[in-house]
Structure formats: structure tokens, C-alpha cells
Specification:
The complex is a heterodimer of chains A (about 500) and B (about 350). Chain A has about 500 residues and is an alpha/beta fold. Chain A has 18 helices and 22 strands. Chain B has a two-stranded antiparallel sheet. Classes of the chains: A alpha/beta (about 500), B mainly alpha (about 350). Chains A and B meet through strand 2, helix 1, helix 11, helix 12 and strand 18 of A and helix 1, helix 10 and helix 11 of B.
């Protein structure tokens, strides 16, 4: 399989931001027909390295060899000429153009100018869509597309240019299980054609599924590069990613509560709630309980969470807190009732990027800091609350005054959690709480949830990650096509049952 | 992703020269401008001119403070000139209640002076509350509503005195608008006082934090329980009150109640000062210290060319060029991001 010459060779790449070294003598070799997985923490330097390869960033030192030719730096244009294509985490597309227009942007076929309908009937595009086996409306505006559809559009755009190197930067994170499978088979097809693939992911199982070689980055340095088949199981890979000390901490187990403990009071009760994308949902959460709502992407669980929180309007149904009926018209009402939501879209709904860590944390509970003359905020008190939360949640930031946009994804998520800890809410809902978060932070989040539950609060976790649901929930609701189809205790659930319910019925409908 | 995780120890201390320069660039531009102005005309630093300069700066500056709050919420108030005109006309009108609108031996107050002031400022507040309510409630575009206000209020300030300019206001108002303590204009002291007040409002109150939060992330801030209607009403009300106050100062400085104050100059100057002060036009970012300097820079650009003795039109050409250069040097390289 190995050709004589590698497609890409990165030698001793060094990159610094404001005097901080984010890549330190990084080496990486990519052969034709190889699937090279790149793994590591948030902030380990994976994306930066790939931005250097695709010409977006320039390295401070090091050599880039492509097809045996040496380059001291590449520009985005040069990368395009060389056939290097990167699918970024957040697709860079134009909102007001259609999917097809975005796909062809930059090199519209000449004939299209005279007959725009050709754009939507391009054989190559239709063939790719057909081969991957998913539905994609080419006439839809990007504005109306889901993240998955945007990723697909971006992917097709790249494939049309017959790339020789394709970089997937966490492409599968927002996708449903079916779409992920489509991408996987596509990657295998690319491999057969001799294309080199660099695959960035947080999901360790994916590495074992498709990877030929894996390179682990930690704090800007290569820890190891190894053929995947030489790895002794997932533990070895986790060990490389997190380092020795932390590997000890990656154990989490929770003494699961049992549903028949009637002594525990019901905190939150939802009855026959209907809204966008979900119908007739009833569920409850008891004190000290972690309840999981499991469903694939598009099953309506995000809409359900946002409706309970007052961000969306319900069509009908009731919400009770400690047996008292709530009237929730906006998040403000939910917060007043001491319900918190950690939303799925962290960057848009969870944090305010240009505000400091401190401001973000105290915002929902800011009224309680009106201490000076009962009007002005007590900065001293805010500082002490924020600092203790930063310590408790191990948020990595230079100071509490740093703007949130400079934090990594996992630390942003911890800020969102800290926000609800500061406001001391009774019911905490979390929507995909560990999406796009590195493994060490993920366990920090689990431990924290366990801790909060033991304080007697109720926790409702909405997730499409079956392992996550199994690891933390005392009780599980399965959601399919906007309806809760099954409720079960932890001891009755396992991977197969859950996946069967969630996927089986999803397949039948589709 | 661009930041490493565990570099707490070293990252705090490494601040390059470039960063230091960019942090203090407003001050640097101000100093360069001061030196340049002095070189163009040494009269620039005469005590008389410093008095004029600070007076212009304070009028622009007070309006700018209000504009800043509105822009921090991601809005814009195009009508501050009209609000100022309305308040200016109202003040004079209330002091010529039922009598001839030209110079008179004795003014006729509709009510004691403090009440007249409150009425003028109250009109500004009411206008702002109205803007804020309909913008926040129905999610209307800020510029559309305030553009409408610009014309409507201009019309009202013309109708009230029947298109006449009202001559003569009371002594206290004249002292506010044109007086000075030593070489320091009274309006300058008021400006600084208001700046401190606005600074405290923005940084030490819940509504101030809500202003930054709403401007920095509309959706995320509502997820924290912040009400857009409240934020908008607060911002526009403060802006309206400050614009009305500028109207009072105008009346005092010119000793008239003149609807022609309602031009777009005040709005354009305040907008310019806000931008020069480093406020993000899309909201969420900006500091009071920045816009104070911004206001001074705008005042200087106007003042220094007036001193050159050039014909007004070439003066405007130079002014325009200077403005482009300054704005470019301040804003270039800064990524303005829509929240």
C-alpha cells in the first residue's frame, strides 16, 4: 500500500501565539491511501497544525514537504492548487446562497451563467450525494440548513475538486449516527482512490474503526505516532492523550439511584408537553436523581429541553416544580423557578464570547450581588464566588477577567456549568453536555454532575451518546421522532437495547 | 483551539510590544494629534483655545456617552440631534411662556427652573423609553425607528415655536453652556461627572452588565434571563436624557432656543467619537475611557482646522482626510465581529 513518496511530510513545525508555543517541533507523515488520525485534548494544537498544512496559518519554523517538494510556507491558494482540502469545524459558507451555489462557489462552470438550473442538476454532485446515501436539497438556503447539512455541502465542495489530501476536522461531531456512517464509508472510498486522509476526532472509537495510523498531540508536542493495529486497546490511546497522572482520574462510577425509592420527592414533572418537533412528552425528575433522555440527532430532545427552559413556546402541556404548576414564558421565568439549561449550542446560546469569565458566570444570578447600598454590585463578593467556582471546576484561564472567547471548548462548557452552580438552581438540564469536549474534561463534567446530584438537585441530561447516558443516568427515557417511547431504570438498560430502540424505529420511519 | 491548555505559568507575563501599543493606541493617537496640532498652529495650545476645545469636546462628549450605551446594546440612535433640538426649543419656550419669543426685559417661567429642566430631560427620557419599548418588544431595526424619530422630533421642535427662533434664556443655563471656572468650562466638569456616573452604571449595576451581555450575545444573554425590552428601554432612555441635556447646554451657549440645532451634526460627531473610542459598532465591547478620548479627538479635528484661517471648504477637505487617517489607524486590524 505504501507508495515510494509520502504525500505530505511536516518536519519540525513550530508555531507561536503571543510568545506561547502551541506547536513544538511537530512531525507528521501522510502516505497515499492512508487514514491518519490526529487526536489530543482541546488546545493540543491539532487544528493549528492542520491550518498550517492548508495554508491558513504560517509556521514560525519548520519545513513542509508536499509530493516531495519543499515549501517554507503555503498560502490557502497554493494549498488549493496542490489539492489539499480541509473541512473545518465550522463550515465557512455563505448564508444567503443555496447549497449548490455554495458548492460551486469560486469556480462556477461557465455554462451555468446562461442556464442556472444546471447548477442543481450537476451529475457529479448528484452522484456523490447518491453514493453517500443521504438526502440533501441543493436548492435550500444555507441559512436554513442544519449543521450536518452544512458539513455535507462543504464536503461535496471539496470532493468535486479531486483532492489528494483531505483533512476532516471533527466533521462527525454534529452528525447523526447514520450520517456518520455515510462519512465513514466515504472516507474508505477515498482511501481506495489513493487519497491521503487526516482525520481529527475526539472520539476514540472512530480511531479504531477507520484509522491506519494515529498521531497523538499533547500541549503542542507529538506524544506518539503509531499504526493503529499496534495499539493495545483504547486504554493505551487514552493514556497517550491525557498523560500518566490524569489517566488515573479517568474513572467514573456512580451509585445509581433506584426509581422505586418513593421517599425522594419529585422535583420536576412535565405532563403531555407538545411543541416544535416533539409530541405529548411526559417525564419527571426526582431529588438527587440523574435522568437521561436518549435520542439520536433530530429526535426532538434539544427542542424539548429548550421548551422546558422557556426558550421555545410549547403548544400545550404542563410543567410542575415540586408539585406546583409553573408558567414559563421565557428563560427568565425558568431561572426564577431555579431551572438551568446548559444548551447544545455553546458558542451561541451558552456563553457571551466578548464578556469575561467572571461576568458570564454571575449573569443569571447577578441580582444577588447587589450589596453596596442595595444598588451596586459588590465586586469583592463576585470575585470570591467566581474564584471559588473556577477552582472547584478546574477552569483553565489566565484570570477571571479573561474574555470567554479565548477559552477552549471544554473550559467554555465549564463556565456554562459554573453559571448554574452560582445561581444555585434546583433542576439542571444539560443538552449534549460533552459534545466536542476532550476526554479529561468530560470526566470532570461527569464527576461534577454526580456531586450536584448528591446535594439533592435533579439533573436531566439530553444526549445522543449512548455510553454517556449509560455511565451517568439513574433512569433513562428513550426519545424517537419527538416522542418518549420507553422509560427504563439503569439496571434494565444496555447499549444494544438503547441503540435498537433509537435507531430501529428511526430506520422504520425513514 | 488556538490556545494551549496548561500554560498558565508563562502566558500571563508575555506581553509583546505590539500588544502594549495596541492597548494604548487611543492615547498614542491623541498625543500624536496634540503634537501635530501644535505644529500646525501654536495658537492651538493657548488658554483661550483650550477653553473652546474642551467646551466643544464636552458637548460632543455628553451625547457620545449616551450613544455609547445604545451602541453597546447593538443599536444606534440617529435622532439625538432632534432630541437635543426639541429640548433646546422647549427650554426657551417654557421660559417665554405666553410672551413675545424675542429678547425681553424679563423672562416668564412656566415653572421654577429645576422643574423646567426636569421637563426637558423628561421629554428626552420619554422618547428613549418609547424607542426602547417598540425596538425591544417587536424586534424592530434600531436605525429605522430612530430615523423616524429624527424627522418627527425635528418637525415638533419646529412647530412648537411656530418656526421662530426664541431669543434669550436664563442666566444659569447660560452659565452651564458658556461659563467657566477659571479656564475650565462648566460643561466640561459636567461631562466628566456624567462620565463617572455612566461608568458606574455600566460596570457596577445589573442593568449595566445586561447592556454588555445583550450587545455581546443576544441569544445567550436571554438564556441568562435578560429581557431585551428592559435593556433597550434603559439604553435609549439614558441616551435620550443626555441628548436633551446637550440641548440645554446649546441653549445656554447660544442664548437661544433654536430648532436648527436638529441637524445630523451632533449624531455624526457622537457616532464618530464612539467609533474612535474603540466601541464595537455591533455591540458588546467598548469602554468609557475610550469614548472620552474619542470625543476629544473629534473636537480636535474640528477645532484645529478652524484655527488655520483656511477657507471653510478646503478646511472640510482636510478634516475629512484627517478623519480617514485617524479612524483607519485606530480601527485597522481590529476584527469587528457581529454578535
Amino acid at each position: 500500500m505504501k507508495a515510494e513518496r509520502p504525500l505530505v511530510e511536516l518536519k519540525n513545525i513550530v508555531k507561536e501565539f503571543y510568545g506561547v508555543r502551541v506547536l513544538d517541533n511537530v512531525n507528521l507523515v501522510l502516505w497515499p491511501g492512508e487514514i491518519h488520525c490526529l487526536v489530543g485534548h482541546n488546545g493540543a494544537g491539532k487544528t493549528v497544525l492542520m491550518k498550517i498544512l492548508s495554508g491558513v496559518l504560517q509556521p514560525e519554523a519548520g519545513e513542509i514537504w508536499i509530493y516531495g517538494k519543499k515549501f517554507s510556507k503555503i498560502t490557502p491558494r497554493k494549498a488549493k492548487e496542490l489539492g489539499i482540502f480541509r473541512i473545518p469545524q465550522d463550515p465557512e459558507l455563505v448564508d444567503d446562497l443555496t447549497v449548490a451555489e455554495n458548492i460551486f462557489m469560486g469556480d462556477l462552470p461557465g455554462k451555468v451563467l446562461f442556464n442556472p438550473t444546471k447548477l442543481y442538476n450537476d451529475e457529479r454532485v448528484l452522484k456523490i450525494i447518491d453514493e453517500m446515501g443521504f438526502k440533501l436539497d441543493l436548492k435550500k438556503l444555507i441559512r436554513d440548513c442544519s449543521r450536518a447539512e452544512k458539513q455535507m455541502a462543504m464536503l461535496i465542495r471539496g470532493l468535486l475538486r479531486r483532492p489528494r489530501v483531505v483533512i476532516f476536522d471533527e466533521t462527525t461531531a454534529p452528525l447523526s449516527i447514520r450520517e456518520q456512517r455515510a462519512i465513514m464509508s466515504l472516507i474508505k472510498k477515498l482511501k481506495m482512490q489513493g487519497v491521503g486522509v487526516i482525520y481529527i476526532s475526539h472520539r476514540i472509537d472512530e480511531v479504531f474503526n477507520i484509522g491506519d495510523t494515529v498521531t497523538v498531540l499533547r500541549n503542542g508536542k507529538v506524544v506518539v505516532t503509531k499504526p493503529v493495529k499496534d495499539l493495545k486497546g483504547m486504554e493505551e490511546l487514552v493514556y497517550y492523550i491525557v498523560g500518566e497522572e490524569i489517566a488515573q482520574e479517568l474513572k467514573f462510577s456512580r451509585n445509581k439511584q433506584r426509581i422505586d425509592e418513593e421517599a425522594r420527592r419529585v422535583l420536576l414533572k412535565v405532563e403531555n408537553l407538545s411543541g416544535d418537533m416533539f409530541e405529548d412528552v411526559s417525564l419527571n425528575v426526582r431529588e438527587g436523581e440523574i435522568v437521561g433522555v436518549f435520542g439520536v440527532v433530530g429526535s426532538g430532545k434539544t427542542e424539548l429541553a429548550e421548551t422546558i427552559f422557556g426558550w421555545r413556546k410549547p403548544k400545550r402541556g404542563e410543567i410542575y416544580l415540586r408539585g406546583k404548576k409553573l408558567k414559563i414564558n421565557s428563560p427568565k421565568d425558568a431561572i426564577k423557578a431555579r431551572i438551568g439549561l446548559v444548551p447544545e449550542e455553546r458558542d451561541r446560546l451558552g456563553v457571551i464570547q466578548y464578556m469575561s469569565v467572571s461576568d458570564n458566570i454571575v449573569l443569571p444570578s447577578i441580582a444577588r450581588f447587589k450589596k453596596v447600598l442595595r444598588t451596586f454590585l459588590s465586586m469583592k463578593e463576585i470575585r470570591s464566588v467566581v474564584r471559588s467556582l473556577i477552582r472547584r471546576l478546574k477552569i483553565v484561564t489566565r484570570s477571571e477577567m479573561e474574555q470567554v472567547r479565548f477559552l477552549s471548548g471544554g473550559n467554555k462548557q465549564k463556565v456554562v456549568l459554573a453559571k448554574w452552580l452560582a445561581s444555585n438552581c434546583d433542576v439542571l438540564m444539560l443538552d449534549e453536555p460533552t459534545k466536542g469536549i476532550d476526554i479529561a474534561t468530560k470526566f470532570d463534567v461527569y464527576r461534577l454532575l454526580d456531586e450536584i446530584a448528591r446535594e439533592g438537585k435533579g439533573i436531566l441530561v439530553f444526549s445522543s451518546d449512548v455510553d454517556e447516558i449509560l455511565m451517568i443516568s439513574d433512569r433513562i427515557y428513550c426519545m424517537v421522532n419527538g416522542r418518549i417511547v420507553r422509560e427504563m431504570e439503569h439496571r434494565d438498560a444496555n447499549r444494544d437495547i438503547l441503540l435498537n430502540i433509537a435507531l430501529g424505529e428511526a430506520y422504520v420511519k425513514a | 483551539m488556538s490556545k494551549p491548555n496548561n500554560t498558565r505559568e508563562n502566558s500571563g507575563k508575555v506581553i509583546s510590544l505590539k500588544q502594549t501599543l495596541s492597548r494604548y493606541k487611543q492615547i498614542i493617537v491623541l498625543v500624536v494629534l496634540l503634537i501635530a496640532s501644535y505644529m500646525i498652529t501654536p495658537a492651538f495650545l493657548s488658554s483661550k483655545n483650550v477653553f473652546y476645545l474642551t467646551r466643544i469636546a464636552s458637548i460632543i462628549g455628553i451625547a457620545t456617552l449616551g450613544m455609547t450605551i445604545v451602541i453597546l446594546t447593538g443599536g444606534i440612535d440617529l435622532s439625538i440631534g432632534s432630541i437635543a433640538a426639541l429640548s433646546c426649543v422647549l427650554l426657551a419656550y417654557f421660559e417665554h411662556w405666553g410672551i413675545y419669543l424675542g429678547y425681553v426685559e424679563e423672562l416668564s417661567f412656566i415653572a421654577p427652573l429645576p422643574i423646567i429642566y426636569l421637563m426637558c430631560l423628561g421629554v428626552g427620557a420619554l422618547v428613549g423609553l418609547f424607542y426602547g419599548y417598540i425596538i425591544g418588544k417587536w424586534n424592530l431595526p434600531d436605525f429605522a425607528v430612530t430615523l423616524g424619530g429624527l424627522f418627527a422630533l425635528k418637525g415638533i421642535s419646529y412647530i412648537i415655536p411656530g418656526g421662530q427662533t426664541i431669543f434669550g434664556v436664563d442666566g444659569f443655563t447660560k452659565f452651564l453652556g458658556g461659563g467657566g471656572i477659571g479656564i475650565i468650562p462648566v460643561s466640561f466638569l459636567i461631562w466628566i461627572g456624567i462620565a463617572v456616573f455612566v461608568y458606574i452604571l455600566l460596570n457596577y449595576t445589573t442593568i449595566g452588565k445586561a447592556v454588555y451581555a445583550y450587545g455581546g450575545g443576544r441569544d445567550a444573554s436571554q438564556m441568562c434571563g435578560i429581557s431585551p425590552v428592559k435593556v433597550k428601554m434603559f439604553a435609549y432612555a439614558i441616551c435620550g436624557i443626555l441628548a436633551a441635556f446637550v440641548g440645554i447646554i446649546y441653549a445656554g451657549r447660544t442664548d437661544t432656543g433654536d430648532y436648527r440645532v436638529a441637524g445630523t451634526d451632533l449624531m455624526v460627531n457622537a457616532l464618530m467619537a464612539t467609533l474612535l473610542g474603540g466601541v464595537n459598532i455591533f455591540g458588546g465591547q467598548g469602554s468609557i475611557a475610550g469614548v472620552l478620548i474619542g470625543s476629544v479627538i473629534v473636537a480636535m479635528i474640528f477645532n484645529v482646522f478652524d484655527l488655520t484661517g483656511l477657507h471653510p471648504y478646503p478646511r472640510d477637505v482636510l478634516r475629512g482626510i484627517a478623519l480617514i487617517i485617524i479612524l483607519a489607524s485606530l480601527v485597522k486590524g481590529e476584527k469587528l465581529k457581529k454578535a
